[in-house]
Specification:
single chain, Rossmann fold, glutamate racemase activity, Asp/Glu/hydantoin_racemase, Asp/Glu_racemase_AS_1, Asp/Glu_race, peptidoglycan synthesis
Length: about 260
């Protein structure tokens, strides 16, 4: 088979990476995609670095067994913990990661703190600390670990009283009188964007890295002459480590949200 027509693989610790997949599909609708959600082991953000690395290698091996031409680590935690090791081991395939979209939030130059919502592991890893160090002179940066939010989203709680009450309590922890922008540092969190806006108000920008990651993916494929030349709509296959119909149904629901 022509390598250009092979699928692009995506994986995440559950359904969250579908937020990145959606953006990639908008940008490259003629590509084929395979998504693997590791909901059985979600969330990655409370595991050890070694555990996340082991799970990440298993996910990439699964995608490679399906015959993919590139892999997107659509998980901030897995990117922080494992991207360097994955790239070092799988040298013959592009591996694209994701990181909190801090730069565009800082460049808005708004009064108040830039709040970064993420899993505890993402915020603790050196990759995030290096990113924070880079921009700390330009803005007040307020990391906000959101333990438990991934679990809510994995059960389909993306709107309504339960998730909004969680968010209200969580934003009370922000060490700032004013919030200038919110960065979604976990690929699950874009699915509760509307709930965040309901809690904080319409005036506060809520930013995630899905668009930037998708554009980077396209550039990498273009540079390596790997873009699919097909003119028709590509196909999407979704797999999940839980292997039950409910999580697959939720995945397709979020894909079409």
């Amino acid at each position: 088979m022509d390598k250009k027509r092979l699928s692009i693989g995506f994986f995440d610790s559950g359904v969250g990476g579908i937020s990145v997949l959606r953006e990639a599909m908008k940008l490259m609708p003629n590509e084929n995609y395979i998504y693997f959600g590791d909901s059985k082991n979600a969330p990655y953000g409370v595991k050890t670095v070694e555990e996340v690395q082991e799970l990440s290698f298993k996910a990439v091996d699964f995608l490679l067994s399906k015959g993919v031409k590139a892999v997107v680590v659509a998980c901030n935690t897995a990117t922080s913990a494992a991207i360097e090791e994955l790239r070092s081991f799988y040298k013959n395939i592009p591996i694209i990661g994701i990181e909190p979209a801090l730069k565009p939030a800082v460049e808005l130059n708004r009064e108040g703190a830039v709040v970064i919502m993420a899993t505890p592991m993402t915020l603790a890893e050196k990759k995030f600390n290096a990113l924070q160090e880079k921009y700390k002179s330009q803005a007040q940066i307020a990391p906000l670990p959101c333990g438990g939010l991934v679990e809510l989203i994995e059960t389909g709680n993306i709107e309504g009283g339960v998730v909004e009450e969680y968010l209200r309590e969580k934003f009370k922890e922000v060490n700032s009188d004013k919030i200038g922008a919110v960065v979604l540092g976990c690929t699950h969190y874009p699915f509760v964007r509307d709930s965040i806006i309901n809690v904080l108000g319409q005036d506060i920008p809520v930013i995630d890295g899905s668009d930037g990651t998708s554009r980077h993916l396209k550039n990498i494929l273009e540079d390596n002459a790997m873009l699919n030349p097909a003119e028709k709509q590509g196909k999407v296959e979704i797999y999940n480590s839980l292997e039950n119909a409910a999580i697959i149904d939720l995945s397709y629901k979020l894909l079409n949200k």
